[in-house]
Automatic annotation (TrEMBL):
One of its GO terms (cellular component) is membrane. Signal peptide: none annotated. One of its GO terms (molecular function) is ceramide kinase activity. It comes from Caenorhabditis auriculariae. SUPFAM superfamilies: NAD kinase/diacylglycerol kinase-like. It comes from the Eukaryota. This is PH domain-containing protein. GO terms for biological process: ceramide metabolic process.
Amino acid sequence: MASSTTVLYPNDTVKGKAVETVDHASRSKINGEGGNLIADVTSPHAKKHRIVFDRTLNVFEFKLLDGSSKHLTTYRLDELLCTSKSSVPLRKGVPTASKKGANTPKTLFFYFVYKEDKLKWRLKEVPVVFNTTSERDYWHTIIDSTIRRISSHNVEAFFSMSPGLRYQVLLTERAYHARDFIVEMPVDHWSALDGLVSDSKKDTGRDIDDPNTAHLATPHLRFGIIGAGSANSIVSTVHETNDYATSAVHIAIGSECNVDVCTVHRDSKLIRISANAISYGWLGDVLRDSENYRCLGPIRYQWSALRTTIRNPTYRGTVQFTLSHKETVDPRTKMPQCIKNCPVCEKPGKESDETTQYDYHFHDEFSHVICCVIPTVTPFTPHGLAPYTGIGDGTLDLALIPKVSRFRNMQFMRRLYSSDRTLVCYRVVRWSYQPDADQEDPGVWNLDGEILEQPKGEALHFKLHPQLISFFGRDAAMINPVKRSFIKKRKSSIVYK
């Protein structure tokens, strides 16, 4: 039987009927070639279908040829992981082995990604039987070459299916293991990484150490994270779940979303970068105390939380910040009063440090200072520590909680963003914290789950860099806590409970 593959170009028709168009996905990063590839095929159950590959919109259309227009299914090219001449064993949408089965004559297997539920992504196999083996091979070559132009043991099976994807698996065993591995990587390995052209920060002439520098240039390198930590908050926020298969799917198909980043500076020098949450006071002390009980495993956090709650630490210092948007009223009229001996209030004629140019300040004894770069979804905060902070919305949520009792602190940590009147939240683009110099213990910071020492009597400065890092993920992962009514979303930069 002769091949039935047909190539059409825009405005052409099939048997007198124009080919139906599908809205182009704005997230697709693949440039279309133009024209349509069409073939009449059969399913493994011998039912006749027509498959159309729209190379302008990068969309696949599967239509059952039974005289009805109801049986029509479409997929985007950025939802296609790969095509294969042999089947890959799947178990509940997850490949069970990296080794493929025997080559099946005339059959081409499409592997599309789909959402199994509201959170988890899986693979779907769509087998298509062509009229000839050569026709099957022609479609496989065209699709495979198009995909190639796209800018742990369980997840390796996903990567091995994706054409042209080279990878190396490193099992991290300690804090900063991944960072040290990258720093010590040989030059020839760096040159083999796609998208990494040079040190973009130096090439753009921007001083990364200066907290007042303009927006940094986005590196030409995308990051993918598969959750294997204690909380997996970045993974859960970007993918809406810490499910390893979902993370692997997004990496394998090349999904992309841009994430805000916060840089931390001391003495005009960059010391750390955060893409998650920064906390001081009670949360910092819990992390510091837990380091003494690593032998207990994950339960050490609950044990240290109890010990820290009994101690109920507070730290006296000054927070200065600049709001993300101008307010219609003077924010000073809404802000709490500073406690006595405020170093900023006592400066005559100066509201803030001229070198940093912060607009507002607050001097108090704090139980918590919490800054969220992203919503920070964890098993303990399923709607996010900061539910209305976006992944890349260009703002930081800064919550300042003055000294509270042990009981009130337990209430706050249990409910978080509750109706507690001690909570004041600001949407900021930059801020700083400086502890009072007369404190013997200045405390520590919990920065993305790692300890950052607070210098005694010295200020740390925090600067937002909108959408600085590109992750393998989807914009739809931004959390929308529709079932939570205790916070009303507002355009204001100051959120009160």
